[in-house]
Each structure stands twice: as C-alpha cells, then as structure tokens.
Amino acid sequence: MRTLWLRDRALDLDRVRLLGVLNLTPDSFSDGGRYLDPERALERAREMVAEGADILDLGAESTRPGAAPVPVEEEKRRLLPVLEAVLSLGVPVSVDTRKPEVAEEALKLGAHLLNDVTGLRDERMVALAARHGVAAVVMHMPVPDPATMMAHARYRDVVAEVKAFLEAQARRALSAGVPQVVLDPGFGFGKLLEHNLALLRRLDEIVALGHPVLVGLSRKRTIGELSGVEDPAQRVHGSVAAHLFAVMKGVRLLRVHDVRAHREALGVWEALYGGDRPSRA
Predict the structure, then answer these.
(1) Residue with the larger pLDDT of the pair 181 and 276
(2) C-alpha of 126 from chain center
(3) Domain 3-276: which CATH class?
(4) How do residues 215-263 score in pLDDT, each as one tens digit?
(5) Apex CA 166: angle with CA 164 and CA 169, to 5°?
(6) Where are the alpha helices (DSSP H) in the chain?
(7) Span 270-275, average pLDDT
C-alpha cells in the first residue's frame, strides 16, 4: 500500500512520513507536562510542522506502562481545544485515544486519523472510523489496559502472535467499513526487550500483510536499554538508528518526538538510496 488516505487527502508513502508526537499530558514518559498549556502545545505543533512533520499525533492520556486511566471529560478538556487550534495549521492530525467518546468528538472536529492503542477491540471505535470515513491505526497490545499490559508480556513467538492479531483486526475493521487501516506492532506495549528486538528484525513479515505500517520507538525504554542512555529526552540518536532499520524493512510511517533529527537523517538516507531504496532487508 503506497498511499495513506486521510479523509480528502492522499499521502504518498513512497517517501517516509513522520508523525510528530504532541503529548497533552502531565505524565507521559518523556515530556509529560510540557504541552498541557494550549498555547505551548500550538507553538510546538508549529515547530514540528516547520521541522518536517507530515502528520501531528495528539494524545491526552498517557499509555506508558502502569499509567492510570484519565476520565473521559478530562481527556476531552485537554485534547479538544488543542485539536481545534492545530487543525488550522493545515496539516493532517491523528488523535491517539482509546475512548470512543473522545474519538467521536475529535472526528466531528475534523481529525484525519484515529490512533487506537487497544487495536480497535471496541466495536464502537470501529463503527466511528467507518461512519466518519477515516483510516485507523490498529496497534498490538496483549490486553487493552496499559496499567497491566507488562504482566502479559509472554509469547511463544511474538512476531507470529502480533502478526496474527494485526491481520485479524485489520480484516474485521475493513469488513465493517473502515476505509483503510495502518498496522502498528506496538513496541514496548506489553513487550520486553527481546520481544521488541524480534519484532524489529522481522518487521518485513508485518509489512508483507500489505497495509501501511507505523513504528514508534522514539525515546522508548528499549532505546535506553540498547544505548545505555537513561534520560528519555537524550535518546535521539538511538531512536533515529532504530527507525532507519525499520525503514530498511519497508516501514513508511514513523511516530517521533524529534522531528528535525529524523527528517535530516531520512534526507541523507533517501539521497543515498534514491529510487533503488530497498523495501525490505
């Protein structure tokens, strides 16, 4: 799949596309609290667009391991004013939520992509994406609860199990009328280091399912474990390295905090490979 359809927009995936992360939370693992103020959030959104973000990904509830759920009204209060402001920038906006009540309001405002970390397990999320005619991200997490997901980080073959889940959920969503799905292996969501490494090395098997694939390893614990960098905000170089490896495997969508660093690295990468860039390693 070489095109991502975002309502009335078509995003060519022959070029690697960047989703700039905008966390509207007090407790996200790498930048919690920095963009709770709507004005600061809008300023950061403008910065990421200038740095080369193709899509802005807004989330108002932390889904880090052990995170406590946020009440629906509080999530709306954090998200909706910023979403309305960011939509004026003219860049497609993805909304990262697992609550149908929040998703419905966001889609009514004009959000272009629904990013559900629970993998569209809730029939209401599927119905919303279908009714509004928006693509949806199907992410793998072993259980639909970030607070307990790490207790379920047990797999016989993590790649086979993740692939089977994504394939089944994609088929279910498409048959219900969702116009397009994006697959996300869910790095770090109910997965230990060895699981994340196996998924990275065999990403081409997920790409082979034929849907756009999104990878988000930006600043995550896996990067810290591999690089020895404890501060998430300093894990830029390791994040870029892991994401370039994902691109080698055929991934064309990257969810990142550090847009400029990724856009510069991809500029060099694409110039070196040109039209002969491999779709998988």
Answers:
(1) 181
(2) 17
(3) alpha beta
(4) 999 999 999 999 999 999 999 999 999 999 999 999 999 999 999 999 9
(5) 105
(6) 38-51, 72-87, 100-109, 123-132, 158-175, 193-201, 203-207, 221-227, 236-248, 259-273
(7) 78
| Helix residue spans in 110-235 (DSSP H) | 123-132, 158-175, 193-201, 203-207, 221-227
Q: How far apart are CA 47 and CA 25, in angstroms?
A: 19
Tokens 């994406």 found at: 129
Q: Which of 161, 116, 119 is nearest to 143 (CA)?
A: 119
Map residue 35 onto helix, strand or coil. coil
For 184, the token pair is 């996300």
pTM here is 0.92
pLDDT confidence of residue 238: 97
pLDDT tens digits for 171-215? 999 999 999 999 999 999 999 999 999 999 999 999 999 999 999
pLDDT of residue 104: 97
Give 42-49's long-range contacts (Cβ < 8 A, gap of 24+).
42/82, 42/85, 42/86, 45/20, 45/82, 45/85, 45/86, 45/89, 45/91, 46/89, 48/20, 48/22, 48/259, 49/20, 49/89, 49/91
**Per-position b or e across 52-70, b if 16+ CB within 10 A of its CB:** bbbbbbbbbbbbbbebeeb
Rounded Cα gap, residues 160 and 162, in angstroms: 6
Three-state secondary structure call for residue 36? coil
The number of angstroms, rounded, from the C-alpha of 26 to the middle of its chain's C-alpha atoms is 19
What residues are annotated to the active site?
220, 255
Domain ranges in the chain are 3-276
**Cβ(213)–Cβ(182) under 8 Å?**
yes
Is the pLDDT at 68 greater than 90, yes or no?
no
